[in-house]
Amino acid sequence: MFERLALPLMCAPMSFASSVPLAVACCDAGVIGGWQGGIFTLSDEFGRYLDALGGSHRAPPIVNLPARIATEAAGEAKLALLERHRAPLVLSSLGDPSRLVERVHGWGGRVVQDVTTLRHAEKAVEAGVDGLMLTCAGAGGHTGFITPMAFVPAVRRIWDGLLIVAGGIADAPGIAGALALGGDIACMGTRFIATPESGVVEGHRAMIPGVGIDRIVTSAAMNGMAANWIRDSLEAAGLDVATLPDHRTEMPEGVKPWRDLFSAGQSVGLIDQVEPVAALVARMAAEFAELCPDSRWRQRLAAIESDWG
Ligand SMILES: Cc1cc2nc3c(=O)[nH]c(=O)nc-3n(C[C@H](O)[C@H](O)[C@H](O)COP(=O)(O)O)c2cc1C
């Protein structure tokens, strides 16, 4: 599964930003390709992702699903399709993953749980997950609040399996830093929005290289959960950032969060250009190899795979 990775990196699942072309380009370039399977109905996109990501790619895809999907009748059709495609990796979020773990293990797949607190991490481990993704402070989308400096080593004390680190990472030093803290794989979301392959509107793609870290604001006003947003897009939509409440509130008429209000993490300050996935990955892999010239990360991932059996 991990043998042909170009570097220890995953592209985050990011709703419609993780288009089929983005996920495929990542897997072909040797980066684990995230996509969001919870938002699509079976009749449209879901099958298209599975068809495009099947077959031979350098890196595996990882599909994000809400944990409750395994307990809902409506989720069964999606799980049956994933089973038919033998989906290798599922990223579970929001809730108890026990049933999902049972189901995915049934076809030989592995489940990684996305967590933002130590308590969530402990519960996920008890539920039998195969890996943890720590969404830390500064992440794009729904953010965590704990700095990776404290979170990664704290989770390492209770978990020696696969650990993915997300939030604020957009370059090779960030990947090396995630590994130095005890992570096995770094995850980038915002960095991959600034590629021609991502599924965002042009305004969103173009805004990322143009804004700095100070333009990122955290707000729960859009859908009730704290997420990071580019201030410029909120202001362009007529929102007064200074007076946003800390709970869900009505958006101006016609304004849709995610589509018209652009989400990004604090790593925007590290992104200078829109770059095709293949060139971006090749550049970061070369920079990472300078920082971490040995193959310890590969040996570690090989050992995790061998433990999985
Ligand atoms: C526009 C956008 C949409 C996102 N949508 C999802 C999603 O649907 N599911 C999910 O688990 N995470 C989602 N995320 C969060 C990412 O999975 C990841 O935690 C985050 O991008 C990492 O931080 P970074 O953006 O600083 O790299 C989204 C992030 C962004 C920027």
CATH architecture of the largest domain: Alpha-Beta Barrel
Alpha carbon gyration radius:
18 Å
Largest β-sheet summary: 8 strands, parallel, barrel
Low-confidence stretches: none
Shape: globular
Query: What is the CATH domain class of the largest domain?
Result: Alpha Beta
Distinct helical segment count: 12
* Helix/strand/pairing category: alpha/beta
Task: Give me a quick take on this structure.
By secondary structure, the protein is α/β, with parallel strands linked by helices.
Folded structure, characterized:
The structure is a single chain. With 309 residues, the chain is of the alpha/beta class. The protein folds into two domains: 9-198 and 272-308, Aldolase class I (TIM Barrel); 202-266, no CATH class. The protein has helices spanning 20-29, 42-53, 73-84, 98-106, 118-126, 148-156, 172-181, 190-193, 202-210, 231-236, 277-291, 296-308; strands at residues 9-11, 32-36, 61-66, 89-93, 110-115, 131-135, 141-142, 162-166, 185-188, 216-219, 227-230. α1 runs parallel beside α11 and α7 (172-181) packs across α11. The longest helix is centred in the C-terminal third of the chain and has 15 residues, at 277-291. The mean pLDDT is 95. The structure holds flavin mononucleotide. Residues 12-15, 17, 36, 64, 93, 114, 135, 138-141, 166-169, 187-190, 263-265, 267 line the site of flavin mononucleotide (FMN).
